[in-house]
TrEMBL record:
Pfam families tied to this protein: Pkinase
Keywords for this protein: ATP-binding, Nucleotide-binding
Sites where the protein binds ATP: 44
Record-level GO BP terms: filamentous growth; regulation of mitotic cell cycle
Domain Protein kinase span(s) in chain numbering: 6-342
Gene Ontology cellular component annotations, sorted alphabetically: nucleus
PANTHER family documented for this protein: CELL DIVISION PROTEIN KINASE, CYCLIN-DEPENDENT KINASE 10
GO molecular function per UniProt: ATP binding; protein serine/threonine kinase activity
Name the record gives this protein: Protein kinase domain-containing protein
Keyword rRNA processing tagged: no
Family matches, as InterPro entries: CDK, Kinase-like_dom_sf, Prot_kinase_dom, Protein_kinase_ATP_BS
Amino acid sequence: MDALGWKPLAKIGGGRFSDIYKVQKNDPENCSAVIGEQQLFALKLVDPDDEKPPHNIRNEIKILSDLKKAQEEQNTAISNVINLISVSFNNIEYGLLFPLLDMTLSQMIKSHVKSRVVFNSDGTMKMRKVNTIPIDNVFKIVVGLMKGLDWIHSRGVIHRDINPNNILFSREDPVMPVIIDFGISYQGPDNNGLEKPDRKFTDIATGIYKAPELLLSKRDYSNKVDMWAVGILIALILSKDGKPIFEQDSMYSDLVLLSNILATFGSPPSDWSDCKGLTSFDSLNRTFFTKSPKPLETIVPRLFEEPETDSSSKLQKTIAGLTKYETSQRLSAHDSLAILLC
């Protein structure tokens, strides 16, 4: 890491193929002359020889650089997408330098889950976890997520891994989300020669945030896989206890996840155009009984238990539109903003 010009202070994250450190410049006196007044940064280290598709650090650099260039050309700043400051290479690993942000969405939700005493009818007591994130704050976070997704989608990019650990916040502005980690993202038309549009990788997304068409091995999917993921993400932010709407085993088993999706949102239409003709979809229709969707008020009860506001009403419409099976009916980020900001 020293060869890249940075002094590590603490490891703050990472995944299968990367490590992320809080760093400062080896020569802090000259740091401000190079990259402004900020002294602390996040450095993502990746050895490209260790990666397995769809992870590709060179592709991530290309996508982030193109997004940055587009903002510069349009003289605009998209605050809800992480900004790549610089790239280093020491003949072994790449170092991607980013602004340092304080917490993930997972950490933010956890900080708002409080223990409350509940009295039972027989006079006994029990402790209950309660999510205290204000609905108006959720609304602002969702608007920020949609602005970020609308921007990257307009540039032909599918993120492919929207989940709570890839959304960051600063403590100074805890309602402005920043989308990070483009390590498995797709850039049209063919992901810079790595994937044909109709032969995309389906081993993408994290756990419960996989769209149903991915579970059925649809390979010519669109950016609507991001929109399904953000719909499930919003349900998490709005949960009563800070827990996901699907059971824990759904994180590790696609079959369990599919079963949970069907139990929550009902069976897909028998003529589902996105997956009709796929062997996996034909098997699904033969294997599972037809199920009806749960009412939205049982999926995100907080939106219905509190007095209805403009924010809660718009969030209801948005979640309902994001969790459609038919991708032609599933809301885009642009359409979501039209609902939220009308």
